[in-house]
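WARN retry 2 of 3 for item q-0093 after timeout on previous attempt; input resubmitted unchanged.
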Amino acid sequence: MHSRMLAGRTALVTGSTSGIGLGIARALAAAGANIAINGFGDRVEIDALGVELSRNYDVSVQYVGADMSQPDAIALMMRELTATLGPVDILVNNAGIQHVAPIETFPRSRWDTILAINLSAAFHTTQAVFADMKARRWGRIINIASAHGLVASPFKSAYVAAKHGLIGLTKVAALEGAEAGITANAVCPGYVWTPLVEKQIPGQARSHNMTEAEVIRNVLLVNQPTKRFATVEEVGALVTFLCSDQAQSITGAALPVDGGWTAH
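OK item q-0093 returned
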C-alpha cells in the first residue's frame, strides 16, 4: 500500500488521546489522513500531541473534546469538525469504558454510562456522517469492538452487551452502505499492551500474590493462546488497511486481533 494512500481524507478517531485510539490515529496520520482527536486528558499534553502528529506526518490535526456519553455534545462536535476539517471520510469509534461486577450488584448508573459510550455514541457518530458518505459515495466506518464482542466473560455484563451490540450495528451499517461505497467493519482486540494495562499489573500481582510475569501469563493473557499482548501498532495497521481500496470488499466483518482467544 502507498504510504500516503489516505492523503486528503479526514478521519475522526474517538477516544484517541491515549492507548489503542492514539495508535490508530498515528497509523492513519502516517497514511496521510487529517486527524480529529477526541478524548479526555491534560489539554496541554493533548495540544502537544496534535503538534507532534502534524509535524511528523504533515497532516492537519484538530482536538474535539466531546463527552461521548452525551448525544448533544456529539452532535455539536460533528458539526464543528465538518466546518473546520471538512466532511468525515473515516470514522473510527474507539471510545470505551469498563466496569466489572456481578449482575446482581452491577450499578445501574454504570450500565447506562457504558452502553452510552461504548454503543450509543457509535450510533450517533455514524448517523451524523452516513448521509454525507452516501452522497460522496465513499466512507469507512470502523468500530473498535473487542474479543468480548464475540465471546463473554463473567462480571462484564454491560461491556459484553455493548460490544456485541456494536458488532450488530456494524453489520447493519455495512448493509445500508454497501451500494454507496461505504464499508463498515468491527475490529475485535483481545488484550493490547497500553499504558493503562501496564499500570494494572503491579496491583494485580499484589492482589493475586503472584509475580508480574505470572499475572501477565496466567491472569491477563490466560485466554490468549499466543501468550503475548497485541500492540497498538498492529491494531492501527489493520484499521489503516480497512480504509484502503484493497479492502473495499471487506465489509460487515468482525475481525479478531486477539492472539487466538476466540478460536477456543
